[in-house]
Amino acid sequence: MDVWSTQPAYAAPTAQASGRAWLEISDRDERYDITQSGVTVVGSSPSANVVLNYAFVSRKHFSIEYENGSYVCKHVKSTNGFLYNGLRIYSHEEEQFLLQDNDIIRIGKFSVGSKNSGLVTLTFHSTAYNYHDFAPTKLDSPLMTIGSAQDCNISLSGQQGVAPYHARLQRDQEGRYSLSPESMYPVYINSKRVKSSQQLEMRDKLCVGQYRFIYDGSYLVEDDGTSSVCITTKNLFKYAEPTLFDRFKKDGGKASLKELLHDVTLAIPAGKLVALVGGSGAGKSTLLDAINGTRPVQQGTVFYNNKNYYTNIADFNTQLGYVPQQDIVHMNLSVEDALYYGLKLRLPDDIHEQEVRQRINTVLDEVKLTNPEMDAATREGVMKLRVSQLSGGQRKRISIALELLPKPSI
Question: Are 31 and 121 contained in the same domain?
């Protein structure tokens, strides 16, 4: 069974684009090169570099520029705004975003009965980033500077787009770090430009010049690409283990094996939302368990970023979130304890307690068991509830929250 492509998804198809970056449009079999000189304008104007002839697209909807070794998306003001990797950018907002491979921009407008409704999806591809093999840096000082100067705590000398004193990391009394820009050169957190001091959360992605880092609470670690994961499977075969009845059943002297997966080859690019649809017993859970390693296949290979996943599981163990059909949350623990111990098992031992608590609060808001406007007493009441006291739907939300805690890529 072939789905999408038999080629590894992580290998960008550079043969189809002459530049180091390009845009892929959802409803066209075309790719548009993004140059490293000048400005690439996307809009409905005939003079735009990438023309999107839709009523809901502004004449100049956004632009892409190459600055300090990175591609940046700039939104001035448009009629309908857009979605950047699912984040809503409103029409009146002036924003800048660092673009990375497989980022998705969606422009659309939906009105009942309107002929002007619709949606267009643009996917950004780039092969521009080079991994520097930068050693992990322990954050062990109240104030740490980042820049090209030799006396910086984190020295990035000799790289384009890095100021002598580019940014600083400052630790508060509770052990949490905030990032502040210190120069005219941009610094980004999760692809969004930082304009003033901003507190960091675990697994936040930082960009300084041509460097990409991940903050894990105690270290800055260079992003080696495993935080953005593409999955490819090749010729997967899986057979059911023979039952006791099968062992006694003779078929030419051998027990017959039921085939659960037959020659499954697929490719899922990073950042894509994919639905696996099929009837009861079709093998959906079996395929998912094969992809995540819970129940490996007997034949075939699963690749994560072109690495054999079964032999490199440790490289991706914090990047995968999987919620099984049956909840695996301990029923006698409180909501707070279930999430606390789940997070402590997945992150470094020296992570600050305040960051753990902050992350728990964030994921509970994300799954709508709490909300940011909730008063402290009500939030505490939710935290102290035993999992067994929750409804089935609420327990499933706890299972989802447990997997969201380390900010997985998958």
Answer: yes
